[in-house]
Fold:
Amino acid sequence: MADHYQKTYSWIRRHIILVIFLVLSIPFILVITIVYFTGYQYIKSSITQQAGFKLADAAIEVRSELDAGITGLCKTMSFLSESETMSGLQEEETLARIFARLEKESGDVFQDLAVVATDGQVLAGVFPYGRVYVDFSREEWFIGSCEDRVVVSDVHFDSRNNPYFIISVLHDHCQEQAMLRATVNGLWLSAFVENVRLGRTGEAFLVNSKGIAQTRSRMGKDFGEKLNMVFLEPQPDGTIRMAYHEQGVEMLAAITSLKSNSNWFLVVRQEKEEAIEDILMVRMVFIFGVILGVIFIMVIGYLTSSMLMKKIRQADEKKCEIDEQLIQSQKLAAIGQLSSGVAHEINNPLAVIGEEAGWLQDLMKDADFKDFKHAEEFRDSLGAIVDQVRRCKEVTHKLLSFARKMDSNFSEVNLKEVVDEVVEMREQDAFLDNITIEKVYDKKLPIIFSEPYLLRQLLLNLVNNAVDAISKGGKITIHARMGPQEKVLISVTDNGFGIPRENLNKIFDPFFTTKPPGKGTGLGLSTCHGIITKLGGEILVDSEVNKGSTFTVVLPAKPNPGNKTGEQAAGVE
Amino acid sequence: MQDNTDPRILLVDDEERFRTTLAKRLKGKNFEVADLGSGNEALDYIKDNQVDVVVLDIKMPGMDGIETLGEVKKLVPGIEVVLLTGHGTVETAVEGMRDGAYDYLMKPCEIDELVEKINGAFAVKKERDLRLKQAEDRSRLDKLEKAVRF
Ligand SMILES: [Mg+2]
Structure:
């Protein structure tokens, strides 16, 4: 019905959707932003912190192992050197015995052993690897040894590129000083850290204060590799926790210096992404929440706009319907006024014409006219005039009764009786045209409160119409039943020629008729409309060409306090 | 006394041509007809003349049919009135009948119908007049009887 509103509808729809999206999205985005910058970031930083603790724990554990190992070596050497005299140490045999004992206690760790005088001269030595040393006075460890009793050197490489480091213990015996110097296999040191496993990317290695790797690592660091590391202030537990980038990958690391060699730092590190992979779950929940929210907004937006559109459409349709009804009744009222005026004005001259013609007819009966040659023609003509006046009279009377203020005398009406009466009135004529009239009543048909005379006239008009719609042979069904909301429905169905679609909205107009001139006034259905308005009901039409029509009268079963609605359609006196 | 006389009709209608022609036609049907154009004239007329049936148009300028009917009934209660409604207000006509009119007809009317109604009205009047006369006779007789007894 409201197809021409389609543009407006899509405009309204777009705006509703836009407004709903804005209204829902702005707080949603706000909430998401707040959650992201507070909750999410808080969780992320705490997870990062946890990962840092984990690395630090691992670092402390590895450090204590390393310290224990290195300190063990140092202690063994101290113990051995203390148990011998200086001169005894300088004997190759004694030294060889000590070396053998070291080898026995520590396995393949010691590579050679030497006694070095305070000026750096080698006093005695066991060199199974074939290294021969003469003067150590320039070496780093030696310079350190002059100050400390026990020195552990950085890792160096021998001529075959094997890593080693040096432990030197000061032998202090009755003013005589010398150093017991041992070379320790670098691989032994590396074994402590190489096997440290932390997830997929976690590793541990030793580095000295200059950033040079002292061990290999699981992820491919090698001895002597120069690492670009910056050391920060240590934490209270002696570890430094830091995050840094290495080749574009963010790393999380815990660094701690060894107690046995303060120049060495143990680095335990892991790729940050892996270290804080617990955040992935949180992130997924967050993203899931966002997606869910977006879907929710879309669904709500769609549903709300659809619902609103439906309501608007219904309201519009209702309004159109009411407008149409209003126009219809206004039209009928106007036509009623006009036609009653015209009918009245025509009625008097018509009466005069009728009387004049009648008078002439009276005169024609006189004997004087027996010889009048055109007497027959005169009589015929006058007869025609009288007939036509009668026809006009019928029209004006119908017009006047259409426009007349209808007498309303509401009372209890037995619908079944009224229908029976009406059908009885028309049954005989219908039978002659081979039309059967069937009556169908619901079992529980109430006694309604209505105006019996008008109701009878209404039904009679409808039955007449149905009979007229069927040329010869057909069936009319009158079905009276209880409808919803205290309404009674009476439908008159015929299987006649139906009403074309383009005529459907004109059939209630006065003077609209498809019958040949003189056969119908076109006032039947408009009278019906007037009556039904008066009775406070409505009339519905359903018709299909060549299939038939159904006129359904909807009447209130109970008295309606406002049933004066028909007054304006009832015309003037 | 009136038994064999023609009914005396007074035709009142503002439409002159209708009135005069109808009067002529009614005369042709053996009525004694007078025709007048307004209610006032009609009232004056019945004061001075014997009338059996008044055929009265409802819609008239000045005094309308219903008013005239009331006055007529007040002046001469014995007169029967047939109303002509040019305008299909059945209520007005019915109201008129409540006020004492014999019947009503819708204009334009068939002459036969009108004649029928007039005859009906006349018969009613005649019958009432007859009873009136009998009652009068009876009361005269009663008086006479009383006088004789004394
Ligand atoms: Mg008039």
The mean pLDDT of chain B is 88. The interface with chain A takes residues 15, 17-18, 21-22, 24-25, 28, 86-91, 106-111 of chain B (CB under 8 Å).
